[in-house]
Amino acid sequence: MGIFRQFLSQPSRVGAVAASSSVLANAMLDSLDWDRISVLVEYGPGTGAITRQIFNRIQHDEDSQKAFFAVEVNDTFAENLAESFPEMDLAHDSVANIEKLLHARGHDEMHAVVSGLPWTAFSDELQDELLLPMIEHLSDDGEFVTFAYVHGLPLKSAKRFRKKLNDRFSSVKISRTIWRNIPPAIFYTCRK
Question: Whole-angstrom Cα distance, residue 109 to residue 116?
Fold first, then answer.
């Protein structure tokens, strides 16, 4: 089942109607300080559009000792990701359980989180349930990058999420609009 069909069947849990473009994925990844990252976690990889770009970067860095795993709660996406990326460490779980997932892999913290979760589709309570454990287990100077669709920015839930980021991170940068994405998007690069 494709991303659009998943969106139609679960619009409050799948926020995209199409996979993220490589332009958006690479712009998000370019915003990270890769030299400072030892443990990288992808939240909500969906169809793997950003995952593919992460793998490209890690595999082309021959000296890389970076640990990488992804967390996907959607059954269909998790199954498809396991087939598309058999070498990937994929946790079929909720990101709310990040502490348990990190400890199972021998880590106490993560240095960067790249997220494809539809934060603005989530309730206030669910935003906190997923965001607060991440912040707690993000290293000092850790980075968090996530995107939002331009058409959703005026929504109350989007403004609430942006305020949560500004209240909890020392630095929040908003990108230029990525027009070569369907729909057009911006992304937030946040540093703890």
Answer: 20
